[in-house]
Automatic annotation (TrEMBL):
One Gene Ontology molecular-function label: nitrate reductase (cytochrome) activity
Domain 4Fe-4S Mo/W bis-MGD-type: from-to ranges: 8-64
EC category name: oxidoreductase
Family in the record: In the C-terminal section; belongs to the prokaryotic molybdopterin-containing oxidoreductase family.
Known EC number: 1.9.6.1
Protein name: Periplasmic nitrate reductase
Top-rank taxon: Bacteria
Alphabetized UniProt keyword annotations: 2Fe-2S, 4Fe-4S, Iron, Iron-sulfur, Metal-binding, Oxidoreductase, Repeat
Amino acid sequence: MNGVGKPDKKVKTTCPFCGVGCNYDLNIKDGKLIGVTSNLTSVVNGRLTCVKGRFGTDYVHSPERLTTPLIKKNGKFVEASWEEALDLIATKFKEIKDTYGSDALAAVSSARCVNEENYIMQKFMRAVIGTNNVDHCARICHAPTVAGLAASFGSGAMTNSINEAPQCKVIFLIGGNPTEAHPVIGAKIRQALRNGATLIVADPRRIELAGKAHVWMQLRPGTDIALINGMMRIILKAGWHDQNFINSCTTDFDKMADVIEKYTPEYVEDITGVPKHLLMEAARIYATAERASIFYTLGITEHICGTDNVMSLANLAMLTGNVGKLYSGVNPMRGQNNVQGSCDMGALPNVYSGYQAVTNAAAREKFEKAWGVKLSDKVGLMMPDMFDASIAGKLKAMYVMGEDPIRSDGDAHHVRKGFEHLEFLVVQNIFMTETGKLADVILPAASFAEKDGSFTNCERRVQRVRQAIEPIGNSRPDWQIIRDLSNKMGYPMSYSHPSEIMDEMASLSPMFAGLSFERIDEKGLQWPVPDKEHPGSQYLHVDGKFACGLGVFKAIDHQPPAELPDAEYPFMLTTGRILYHYCLTTAGYSKHLTEYRPEERAMIHPDDAKRLNIADQDYITVTSRRGTVQARAWVTTDVLPGGIWMSFHYHACPTNEVTMGCGDKVTKTYEYKVCAVKVEKTVVQ
Ligand code: SF4
């Protein structure tokens, strides 16, 4: 790949890795993907890409791709025809629905799949199976963003655009490491610094941008609310708040102001460990800037108080009037390539496409009329609830598309147990996964390079995914598989191209009504795009006119993490992503990326390493109340004493065997950012 001869053709498409949504050209020779080159017409990234986009797509031709349906017989997978596999699934799904009811089935949709596949999956579960039990991996990352920003602003998405970043005067980066997780946004933040911007970073780790920040607040994990409340109290006392904005555009300010009164700089220093002079300087820089922009990601959302963390950031932006204008706002950097789109398409247990609630009678009637069925008004199960329901004997079958919950969800033991209790499991993926090993039927799916569709990036831009090669082996695009299964189950679906699915979705979803493949062809469109003439929306809540009317201040108190270090488990583990990898499926099968960084390295502070007689590169054992993993030590002052930091990218070190099985009280997003562990040097026998 990359440099293997001259391509026969180049096909512009959208990157299948992170939520930045870079566009580039897939270079094709003899029907094979041989490399990736920049396409200067790409609106989001221009010539920029990161190592994953440039070199990681070789997974498409991995010899380990699933190429034919598999049915488990006597404990072993045997090859089957599509006819046989789909017949079996249709029969079992009908049987389980008839015996136990529609809510005994559930589906996991996929942020790796195109919008049209997410729409058709939620339609299949709702219209054909008759349940709202459909969810996807937003549950384990940015569900608190969707819930929190929707509660505060009326819309759960990035308020501004990626290409505003280089023009920002002040950037407040909290709980995010774009250099590694969203590299092209990281590059644009560095561009802003070169343009004279001031950067504030709040992060327990010395991430690359902390070294470039004017103020770095190294807060203890799980203390973001105290930090933000402390900043807001300083701003209020100094009179740096925007009274006009508060008066005319928001509500419930007084309740919030009452709660933050006790967050004196001393009290905040006590909770967060951040010296009060740094807190005061950060508050001054943010509040006195003409325009200041907040960027955050999973360091904010993956806590038991993830939704409250998000709403605290919304409070800070509204207090200073830093929302509803250019180079300002609250900007969640979404993780997966299409996690924004999967939420938008209604792959969630409580909403149809366009965030129309299943409990809203008018919305339900509209979809009933369009789909010709009676729909359930009962909110479905979130993913963690699915595993509990299975263990309790209430959920009998699951259909998992393009995800591997055993590797990606918190407390892998519990998730595995949930799958083991099912009567029937269907897994649809491009590779065999840990979850797939437990399946009764495996369906081989086509990768992003083998199908048409669209992804929506974190700035709400809906962009084209274009087929560049034929599906590998006997694999099929996910939307075709669901369509064919639906037909087998007696609910006719006749889509012949994903554009028809988008047209149906647009006709039923007011905020996406102006979308079509034709309109997104060149540059994509940023939603809301309410009609066919609308040019799309660069930024939201223009002039403080929030999607919900008035912006809502929330009164929020600090909440400690669910599990804190103690005598038995004295370390605090935080997990996250590294530059060279993405997730286990896809990037995990990239030869190039694996060569760059072949194994897990757990960060540990030199003081702790010395005490435990651990040298850099030694193998260490990390154990929590839930499980044990082994990794090489990376002795570094980048983490706080008492802290351990690991990624979750390696089959040989499945970090989620250790992480917490509980999470945010609103969205149930797992608390990946804090759990108590013990660390020992691994004794080699
Ligand atoms: Fe792909 Fe994200 Fe890298 Fe862009 S920054 S090339 S979208 S992984």
